[in-house]
Amino acid sequence: MVVLFVVAASVFGLSSEGVRDAVDDVGPLAPLVFIAFSAALTVACVPGPLLAGAAGLLFGTALGTPTAIASATLGATAAALISRRFGASALDELSGRRVTALQDWIAARGFLAVLYARILPAVPYNLVNYAAGLTRVPLAVFAAATAVGCAPRAFAYVALGGSLDDLGSPEAIVAFSVLIGMALVGLLFAARDVRAARAARREG
Fold first, then answer.
1. I want to staple 83 with a disulfide (CB 3.0 to 4.6 A). Which of 24, 47, 130, 188 is the partner?
2. pLDDT value at residue 168
3. What span, in angstroms and rounded, lies between the C-alpha atoms of 157 and 186?
4. How does the average pLDDT of the chain come out, rounded?
């Protein structure tokens, strides 16, 4: 996603300083406008890394990071709310005992279940948004776990967007390190779960 963002920016001749000069003309409401539009695009399943990179390009890392986290959390919660409003009741009517048991398992773990889904690198962000709406996890808990879970990657993508003119800068290097670290943490969690599942099967 970062590669796509950088290529697109290069093709259209964007520079971080030029874009920020244009944003400054909009005034202090620019971050709020971005949050609203980015949240709407999140509901429409536009990839989060592109939106976070855009926040970095527009506002820089310091302001872009909280802006990206807020927009990602708002969009994710809106998507979960839509899913719950229009899909949860139908799922409850059609689901069997296994699905109900899975819903109960996720609801019991709430914050940690959502946080875990956000950390794992192979789990699509937008899929989690809509799938969470079909569970019994309270939306406030979902939003809190989303904000915490998406923060490291949001910072990384924002920093890369803000460093578009110099991807070899210390800020960009830190961003790449965060993304690699998050991927490794996710793989460690996944490996732990695989070992636990195998041990449970052996005991059973």
1. 130
2. 76
3. 17
4. 79
The residues, any chain, with a CB within 8 Å of residue 107's CB and separated by 6 or more, are 135, 136, 137
**Is residue 67 within 8 Å of 32, Cβ to Cβ?**
no
Q: Which of 146, 145, 133, 124 is closest to 49 using CA atoms?
A: 124
Residue 162: name the closest of 63, 48, 22, 42 by CA. Answer: 63
Per-residue pLDDT, 3: 46
pLDDT of residue 75: 96
Residue that the structure tokens 């796509």 belong to: 4
User: Who wins on pLDDT, 65 or 137?
Assistant: 65
Over residues 102-126, the pLDDT tens digits come to: 566 677 778 888 888 888 877 788 8
Closest CA to 64 of 20, 22, 27: 20
Measure the CA angle with vertex 162, ends 119 and 69; round to 5°. Answer: 40
- Domain map (residue ranges) of the chain: 2-203
CA–CA dist 143, 103 (Å, integer): 18
Percentage helix, strand, coil for the chain under 3-state DSSP, each rounded to 5:
85, 0, 15
CA distance 135 to 169: 42
User: What is the C-alpha to C-alpha distance for residues 147 and 66, in angstroms, rounded to an integer?
Assistant: 10
Largest CA distance in the chain: 65
4 vs 89: which has the higher pLDDT = 89
Give me the DSSP letters along 115-148. Answer: HHHHH-TTS-HHHHHHHHTTS---HHHHHHHHHH
